[in-house]
């Protein structure tokens, strides 16, 4: 190889070096930019979750007090109604969750709106607007999000575990006039267009057929025989917080008495 050829190749390498450096610098800059943008988005999401958690924690502090000797709270419903007159119930399950339940003029209002009217992906637990009797309906359907941070109705999936199911079967449901006890009687995955979301019934037999389907769909055997006089609550949420699906996690509660003290 001649000295001229060697020098020419060396010059080409030198000429390519600044280009490589520029490309590497650009790639590094883009990577850092993507990392920062992703970090900011994640931070924004976490702050949004925290905002909802703080809002509901504040409501709990204002309206809910557990008195000595009791394992359930006393709820000041007047304060809840002062916060929002569309609050219809208050849902409590020990060591699981505690939330107010609203009912709007449609099923969109509280999908991404907190009780104070502020936009937030966590939304508010809400009763299907097509059920005018609310908690007093034969099948009161309550919707809530399956949030990534484990809030709202995200814990419903845990009822698929037999031990968890047995340990969390008692729910307290408060209304302006009543403090009801409910018991979990069925847990399963439901289709969004299936029988689970039926809220009106032709007669007692139609309702009994519905109850039978509800019990037979459960992952666990029920120790409760339901009758046409029973009233249930269907708690419903998405099966996943990360992807769309036509299925829902549902937990069915049956009224099991009332606390009057």
What does this structure look like?
This protein is α+β, with helices and mostly antiparallel strands and 261 residues long. 33% of the residues lie in helices and 24% in strands. It has one domain: Sortase (Sortase, Chain: A, Beta Barrel). It is built from four helices and ten strands. The strands form two sheets. An eight-stranded mixed beta barrel has the order 3-4-5-6-9-10-8-7. The protein has a two-stranded antiparallel ribbon with strand order 1-2. The longest helix is centred in the first third of the chain and has 61 residues, at 3-63.
Q: How would you summarize what this structure contains?
A:
This protein has four helices and ten strands, in the order H-E-E-H-E-E-E-E-H-E-E-H-E-E.
Furnish the topology, listing elements before pairings.
Layout (H helix, E strand, L loop, with lengths): L2 H61 E2 L8 E2 L1 H7 L3 E7 L3 E6 L22 E3 L11 E5 L18 H6 L2 E5 L4 E13 L12 H13 L15 E7 L8 E12 L3
Parallel strand pairs: 4-5, 6-9
Antiparallel strand pairs: 1-2, 3-4, 3-7, 5-6, 7-8, 8-10, 9-10
Count all strands and give the number: 10
Number of helical elements: 4
CATH fold descriptor: Sortase, Chain: A
Q: Which stretches are poorly predicted, pLDDT < 50 over at least 5 residues?
A: 42-46
Rounded to an integer in angstroms, the radius of gyration calculated over CA atoms is 27 Å
What's the domain count? 1
Spatial strand sequence of the major β-sheet:
3-4-5-6-9-10-8-7
- Return the structural class: alpha+beta
User: Which percent band covers the strand fraction?
Assistant: 15-25%
CATH architecture: Beta Barrel
């Amino acid at each position: 190889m001649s000295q001229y050829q060697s020098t020419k190749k060396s010059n080409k390498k030198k000429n390519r070096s600044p280009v490589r450096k520029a490309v590497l610098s650009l790639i590094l800059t883009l990577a850092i930019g993507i990392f920062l943008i992703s970090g900011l988005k994640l931070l924004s999401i976490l702050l949004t979750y925290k905002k909802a958690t703080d809002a509901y924690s504040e409501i709990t502090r204002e309206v809910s007090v557990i008195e000595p000797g009791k394992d359930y709270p006393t709820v000041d419903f007047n304060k809840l109604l002062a916060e929002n007159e569309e609050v219809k119930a208050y849902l409590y399950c020990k060591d699981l969750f505690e939330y107010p339940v609203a009912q709007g003029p449609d099923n969109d209002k509280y999908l991404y709106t907190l009780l104070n009217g502020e936009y937030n992906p966590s939304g508010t637990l809400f009763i299907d607007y097509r059920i005018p009797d609310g908690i007093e309906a034969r099948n009161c359907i309550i919707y809530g999000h399956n949030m990534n941070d484990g809030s709202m109705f995200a814990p419903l999936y845990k009822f698929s575990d037999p031990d968890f199911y047995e340990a969390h079967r008692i729910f307290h449901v408060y209304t302006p006039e009543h403090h009801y006890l409910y018991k979990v009687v069925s847990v399963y995955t439901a289709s969004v267009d299936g029988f689970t979301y039926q809220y009106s019934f032709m007669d007692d037999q139609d309702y009994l057929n519905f109850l039978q389907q509800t019990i037979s769909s459960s992952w666990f055997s029920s120790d409760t025989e339901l009758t046409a006089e029973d009233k249930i609550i269907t708690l419903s949420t998405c099966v996943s917080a990360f992807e769309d699906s036509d299925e829902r996690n549902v937990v069915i509660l049956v009224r099991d008495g009332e606390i009057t003290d």
